[in-house]
Amino acid sequence: MTKYFAKFFKLYPIKTRRLLEIFPGFFSWTIILFPIWGSLVIPYVVAYFILFFDVYWLYKSLAVAFTSFIASNKIKAAEAQDWFNKASVHSDFGKVNHVIIIPNYKENIEKLRETLKAVVSQTFPAKRIFVVLAMEKRETEGKKKADLLISEFKEFFGDIFATFHPDIEGEVKGKSSNQAYGGKKAYSKLIQGGIIDIDYATISSVDADSIFDKQYFSYLSYKFLIDDKRYNKFWQSANVNYNNFWKVPAPTRVIAFFGSIWRMAVLVQKDKLVSNSTYSLSFKLLKSIDFWDTDVIPEDYRIFFKAYFRNKGNIWVEPIFLKTSMDAPLSKGFWKSIKNKYDQERRWSWGVSDDPLFIKWWLTVPDVPFVRKTILLYNVFVDHFLWPVNWFIITIAANIITFINPVFSRTTLGYRLPSIAGAILTTCLFALLMLIVIDFRSRPRHPSQSKAREFLFPLEFILLPLIGFFLNALPALISHTQLMLGKRMEYKVTEKI
Fold first, then answer.
1. Calpha distance 492→44 (Å, rounded)
2. Given phi > 0 = left and psi -120 to 50 = alpha, else beta, which region is 312?
3. String of b and e for 14-28 (b: at least 16 CB within 10 Å)?
4. Distance (Å, rounded) from C-alpha 228 to C-alpha 203?
5. In the 8-state DSSP scheme, what is residue 232?
6. How far apart are CA 136 and CA 146, in angstroms?
7. Residue 221 contacts residue 99 (beta carbons within 8 Å)
8. Cα separation of 400 and 420, whole Å?
């Protein structure tokens, strides 16, 4: 069957690509508009669909609460371990080196400095950590900034150097192409130069605002050394938005809350765990798949699935039960910060542009275990395809049907639909309460933060209907529509101050 699909895609490369690009947007708009036209034609089907979706949302809410509770306990237990001691007793511990690559463009030098300080303070010897400052050549202040950071930190690391990614025809400007350039330069200098052994090296993709737990690289070393499939692995920590949690506007803080909880929860869901944002992999694996792709904006899901299908499904993501703290978008002024968060959500939701390629690989790459590849792809689809849909069905669909079709509203089901849907979704508040407790016990206390503000934080969730639309559903729907219409997106750096 894969041979047939491969032949078909080869015969019609443009038409098949466009068809698959249309699919996510078509799906989103079909589901969103279904309660409107369906209320007039098949109101009972619409009503049961809404109830089914609400029950699904309740299940999803409780599942996230349950898994995030398990993950938070595992994180607390891992934080209490001495990972350096556990790793150092291994006979090959002295051979292990770590490379980190920090792609950045017009990033605040203070943010980069804080990230580097967090790496210096690792329990793992910093002299066996090698830092690549992946700069963009088009940034006028890039070299000056890199030179300053190198002079400040060169005595601490095994090496720290900068690469300057030029504008190359055919490449998409952004994190992925910059990382690919920096990664290849690092391979040439460190691996081919004989400084480190590729068999005992990892490489980490690191956002400019990533503050690692002090034990991250010791934990990573331990996991690397004990794993006989180390060259087929990614490692993923919980990327949480705790750096500036109390500095950002309330709408951004609410989104940061849910994002942080979700990224903790997914650590214990092996079938959903895919590399995201800041992650690590063996350098050997990165080289074998020819580094990151240069023609895309999203790169974390892309590199995992690229590795997965090239290795016939013999690729896994292992959890690192530690928190890597990052910034939520923040600019000067409330509305600029909100716009900054909106732009970030647009960029993240553009990850749906990778889904057509994942479908193509699912159909055409032979000898990949069917069940696992299908589960992985299904989970990606659930996250990406329902992203712009959830808000519409949960928030307004039950009231739309009774408004559009007054006759149906006088039936037993039509009359009771809003109250039943409301009762189901009200039950979700129990899950939200659990998430608030989990977040409170997971998030470090800020010394300047009053207990009163911590206590009043749940009141900010009253903004959730507006936040959910403008900072979640809308940017995702625009991304889906843009892809459906064959338009592309330009990479925008998220401002962090």
1. 44
2. left
3. eebeeebbbbbbebb
4. 18
5. G
6. 11
7. no
8. 15
104 φ, ψ (degrees, to nearest 5): -155, 155
Per-residue model confidence as pLDDT tens digits over 258-291 = 999 999 999 999 889 999 999 999 999 999 999 9
Percent of the chain with pLDDT over 90: 91
**Helical (H) or strand (E) element with 321:** strand 316-325
- Rounded to an integer, what distance in angstroms lies between the CA atom of residue 394 and that of residue 54? 6
Q: Which long-range contacts (CB under 8 A, 24 or more apart) does 141-149 make?
A: 141/106, 142/105, 145/109, 145/112, 148/109, 149/109, 149/112, 149/113, 149/116
Delineate the domains of the chain, giving CATH numbers in brackets: 94-340 (3.90.550.10)
Q: Pick from 441, 397, 403, 449: which is nearest to 420 by CA? A: 397
* Pair 304, 274: CB distance under 8 Å: yes
d(CA 337, CA 314): 42
d(CA 133, CA 149): 9
* pTM (predicted TM-score): 0.94
End-to-end CA distance of the chain: 52
